[in-house]
Here is the input.
Amino acid sequence: MSEVNYKKRIADRILRDKLDAIGAVLIEGPKACGKTTTAEQQAGSVVYMDDPEKTEQLLRMANTNVKYLLQGKTPRLIDEWQLAPQLWDAIRYEVDHRSGDGQFMLTGSAVPADSSRIRHSGAGRFGWITMRTMSLWESGDSTGEVSLSDLFDSRESTTQGTSQISMEKLAFLICRGGWPKALFKKSEKAALAQVEEYYQAITRSDVSRVDNVNRSYERVQRLLRSYARLQGSQASIATILADMIANESDELSDMTVDSYLNALRKIFVVEDMPAWNPNLRSKTSIRTSDTRYFVDPSIATASLGLGPRDLINDLNTFGLFFETLAVRDLRVYADAMGGQIYHYRDSNGLECDAVIHLRNGNYGLVEIKLGGEKLTEEGAETLKKLSGKIDTSRMKEPSFMMVLTGVGQYAYEREDGVIVVPIGCLKD
Here is the structure.
């Protein structure tokens, strides 16, 4: 991937719009997803709170003369701000007493351990961006011939495109993930090694450093293996606990598992998907449990020690991991439209993998399938069943119904109106 493509980040556009609208912008997301680089490109000046040669001095200054750290050409970037949580209220105060928007940017790969030092929510002064790993469109692996925005804007938009992603390439993309540094490696082996090092950093240090609680890296690894096996499901804490106990010699409680998961959420390793609650014609009960997902599929494959060849040899597992990749991309694209991603499941067993819901009430229904005529047909039937249950007298009908596939060469519209789109054709 080229340097030019690296700058084609959806977050760049979102950040630019936020800076035009509000005094300070907080960019959150997993370590190594490109937050600092994205912010640097729009920064007027920068202070790096984790600079090893200056951290001690900067932290002292944050305690004694915090306003000095805020001086500089705007937008002023404060990188890894969570190391000094008192910066939050200081920036809020400065925004209140300066004229103009786009004064500050804050980046961080973790929620502050000591949030008690933050006295104000920042409402009206701060905008938030959750930055994710790179989608296939951003990494140059999708042609981008099918635009989600176009599908929402016009029912008459033509669905056509050709994907260049083979089964082998897709397996590699899942294991490589969307980490910017992995994209620049000279070989596939080096790219996969980059992901393994990230996984080791999570389990051996990051999960403990987030709140200064010493956690067993072996237990974190067992938890991540369990999460990887259960991704895409609404597995309860009790289910995860039972899966872990089978490989755990020490006693383990659901409270311990929950605390570990909260730490992983704080460093943006896992990101579950909430349930969608549409208005239905029937009184069908809707299941409201979150669906378990990683922020990037490569963390799941690294957790289980799987490589591209392992996925190709087990298509059921391949399909589960592809779903996580697809959800990651849909989240990135939905962010560009100010939308949210949900899942649907009811008491009758009807499920929809992803519902893209925009603030204006428009929504699209998406079934995620690895590929093949049989699975595509199953996905289309699910979408039509769900669409038929929605009470369109009380809410809009879906803007589109899509079967999003991993393999398959062409994007097209079926006679029943369901569109079939390979992920290698999709963009925001």
